[in-house]
Write a structure and sequence with these properties.
Blueprint (H helix, E strand, L loop, with lengths): L1 H15 L4 H13 L20 E3 L6 E5 L6 E2 L14 E3 L4 E4 L13 E3 L4 E4 L13 E3 L4 E2 L15 E3 L6 E3 L10 E3 L4 E5 L17 E3 L34 H37 L6 H4 L16 H11 L6 E2 L10 H6 L1 E7 L3 E7 L5 E7 L6 H12 L9 E6 L4 E6 L6 H6 L11 H19 L14 E2 L8 E2 L12 H6 L7 H6 L4 H17 L16 H10 L3 H4 L11 H14 L10 H11 L11 H5 L21
Bound molecules: 2-acetamido-2-deoxy-beta-D-glucopyranose (6 copies).
């Protein structure tokens, strides 16, 4: 009885002096279950705050740091011990012989900012508790025996400045880690493969060495199956032609002149080439040769008689005639009601619209006034027959919110696709072009309509057409004067670009679903992810991974939004340009929720497009209507002949 009273007194005494009672129990439970060096003697008579390796806060009411480096600790960390130190900010257990998986209850250490577990024998998967420790700034798991993939969820650790995973057996490909403040990073000496994501390419090669199958970025380029990730999308050219100012500066005029010159040169080369191949064909025929024209056509530069080739109309006529049915412009689907041939196209005046992942786009104005977009595809890797089958199939897809392929041309050295030209430009140029310079911003109603139009186009691709888009981004959403008739372009082209690896490099950084990096295949669900990013872009006014233009580091848009929303600053995510419109918060928050569902990390938990469209239609309560704007399809072909309002030059309308 007396003894018990004494204990009670002692207890009161200790608590009065400030003793982290529950933390003390947790520490004792840890040490009693973990073999350790005799150096670590935690005396029951002393306050836990004075024990070796333990630090408390100023009030001595909680343990804030536990440092037991090289303390001879052996075996697994027992569950229900360290996970109870709820105020712990620093945990260092480096250079011991701890093994197994760090326990799941470490996820309770919600204020932990430094975790040092390097030089142990930990094994198994990347500890699932760690992505929940969102306050972490330093994480060191190096020199252990971890062996899973590095999860994309490390992006959850938005405050991380140092991430050290070297000397383990981590495998699979590197996720795109896009943590803005990350300044130290090391994954050397693991079993990683695949390409280094663009977000990590800034770190030196010594951070990646010792992974035999890793490539790209600072290491050797990936080939042939793992092309290095394409550079982040080129920003919409900031040429003054896209701006609403009516007075062109001298700079602009020089720019236009130079561009025009380059285009002229290119067209001349194209012309020369055609004439050449025609001549060879003719001479072959004379010799009775039966070689197909594709094989006969050689690169322009190799030919000795380039200088003697004239580019007169007779020659072109001879060229097209001799090529017969073999190398002509082939119209697909409805053909858009166009009637011109390759000759007309070659004679057209052309202007470069942009260089994109599939090739360079030109705006071509034919002599009779029709304007079309011609894309010169690069790196086509399929046979003529497969190319034709693919393009013919895509040409059959007709929907008001999809930009149809009108015609194609295939020869050995030149592959062209012809599309309608939409003078209003792309969503990207309208959303991001010349911000803050007195331009009329896209208002909420227009954004909502464009989003819905793009959604309907994609739902049609996924539904009746069964085609994966594979390259959804704001520069592939082309606008018409009627926002309900906005159209998606560049869909379904992945199959003609050969190795599946290139699907990844072609899909725009920032829109690419995390799993695509690993599977290297775009799917319906990865399209939904990209569409979600597009919605976030409309809501935030921020271009995914283009923040670098402004000198900042690229930001993963979904993650940025997640982090802001999590901190309950929801209002902060929205585009300031939208703040001037009244009574739209509710719709914006609803669209934000749909977008967040689309960018779920797990593909299966993303809704499908039909569902997304239904939810978007519900937002506006039928305000936006549910009919499909098929009329836009026909209207578009003569649209280019109407000058853009105010006589300003057309905007860039292509893949940047
Ligand atoms: C320490 O005590 C002071 C006043 O006694 C209090 O304001 C402060 O919040 C306490 N700090 C912690 C970490 O408990
Ligand atoms: C700690 O984590 C475990 C399992 O991870 C959970 O059951 C428990 O409720 C958590 N405790 C606290 C105090 O959060
Ligand atoms: C990311 O962090 C949040 C807590 O902020 C957590 O709820 C979520 O589970 C974490 N995600 C993963 C994949 O661990
Ligand atoms: C690492 O783990 C593997 C099994 O996963 C085991 O065979 C190997 O011995 C471990 N290496 C060390 C150094 O513990
Ligand atoms: C990369 O590693 C993962 C896991 O080890 C494996 O499944 C995948 O096939 C590897 N890819 C290549 C191209 O080696
Ligand atoms: C990354 O870790 C490896 C192995 O520990 C080391 O050799 C390399 O220097 C480290 N890289 C940097 C940049 O410190």
């Amino acid at each position: 009885m007396a003894f018990r009273r004494f204990l009670l007194l002692l207890f009161f005494f200790i608590s009065a002096a400030g003793e982290p009672t529950s933390d003390r129990a947790a520490l004792l439970a840890f040490l009693s279950q973990t073999p350790h060096s005799p150096r670590i003697q935690w005396k029951a008579s002393a306050s836990a705050c004075d024990w070796v390796g333990v630090s408390c806060d100023a009030n001595r009411t909680a343990v804030v740091a536990l440092r037991l480096p090289a303390a001879g600790l052996i075996g697994p960390i027992p569950p229900g011990t360290l996970g109870r130190l709820s105020s712990l900010r620093i945990l260092s257990l480096r250079s011991n012989r701890l093994s197994g998986s760090p326990p799941q209850d470490l996820s309770n250490l919600t204020v932990l900012h430094s975790l040092y577990l390097q030089n142990n024998l930990f094994s198994g998967a990347f500890p699932p508790a760690i992505p929940k420790l969102t306050r972490l700034t330093r994480l060191d798991l190096s020199a252990n025996n971890f062996s899973s993939e590095i999860p994309f969820a490390v992006n959850n650790l938005t405050r991380l400045t140092g991430l050290f995973l070297q000397q383990n057996r981590f495998s699979g490909s590197l996720p795109s880690v896009g943590i803005p403040g990350l300044t130290s990073f090391n994954v050397s000496y693991n079993d990683l493969n695949g390409s280094i994501p663009a977000t990590l390419a800034k770190f030196p090669a010594s951070d990646f060495v010792g992974n035999l199958q890793l490539c790209g970025g600072p290491l050797a380029p990936c080939a042939p199956f793992f092309p290095s990730p394409s550079p982040s999308p080129i920003p919409p050219p900031e040429s003054p032609t896209g701006k609403s100012s009516k007075n062109l500066s001298t700079k602009a005029i020089i720019g236009i002149a130079v561009a025009g010159g380059v285009v002229l040169l290119l067209l001349l080369l194209l012309l020369l080439f055609c004439c050449l191949s025609a001549r060879r064909k003719q001479s072959q025929r004379a010799k009775g040769g039966t070689k197909p024209v594709e094989a006969a056509a050689g690169p322009i530069g190799r030919s000795a008689d380039v200088g003697t080739t004239s580019s007169s109309k007779e020659d072109i006529a001879a060229a097209t005639a001799s090529q017969g049915d073999k190398n002509r412009l082939v119209f697909v689907g409805s053909g858009g009601g166009y009637s011109f041939d390759l000759e007309d196209l070659l004679r057209a005046s052309a202007e470069v619209l942009g260089k994109g992942s599939v090739g360079t786009s030109y705006k071509a104005v034919l002599e009779e006034g029709t304007t079309v977009v011609v894309k010169r595809l690069k790196d086509v890797a399929v046979s003529k027959r497969d190319f034709e089958l693919n393009i013919e199939a895509l040409g059959k897809i007709e929907h008001g919110n999809l930009l149809a392929i009108r015609a194609y041309y295939y020869s050995k050295d030149e592959k062209l696709l012809v599309f309608d030209y939409l003078a209003a430009g792309s969503l990207s140029s309208n959303l991001h072009g010349s911000r803050g310079s007195g331009r009329t911003p896209l208002d909420w109603d227009n954004r909502m309509r464009i989003a819905l139009a793009a959604g309907r186009g994609l739902a049609h691709l996924h539904g009746p057409a069964r085609v994966v888009h594979g390259n959804i981004k704001a520069s592939n959403v082309l606008l018409r004067p009627d926002p309900d008739a906005a159209a998606l372009s560049d869909y379904g082209l992945a199959p003609i670009f050969g190795p599946s690896g290139s699907t990844v490099s072609r899909a725009a950084v920032g829109y690419r679903a995390p799993e695509v990096v690993e599977t290297r295949r775009a799917t319906f669900k990865s399209d939904v992810y990209s569409f979600g990013v597009l919605l976030l872009e409309l809501l935030t006014g921020k271009a995914p991974n283009q923040a670098s233009i402004a000198g900042e580091e690229g930001v993963d848009l979904p993650r940025w939004v997640q982090s802001v929303v999590r901190e309950e600053w929801t209002a902060e995510v929205f585009d300031v340009e939208l703040m001037r419109y009244a009574n739209i918060e509710e719709e914006m928050v609803q669209l934000l929720q749909i977008a967040m569902a689309c960018v779920a990390l797990v593909p299966d938990s993303r809704p499908d497009m039909a569902e997304v469209v239904r939810m978007m239609e519900d937002i506006a309560g039928g305000r936006l209507g549910t009919s499909e704007g098929d009329d836009g399809l026909r209207a578009s072909s003569d649209e280019p002949s109407k000058p853009a309002s105010g006589g300003r030059s057309p905007r860039v309308a292509s893949t940047p």
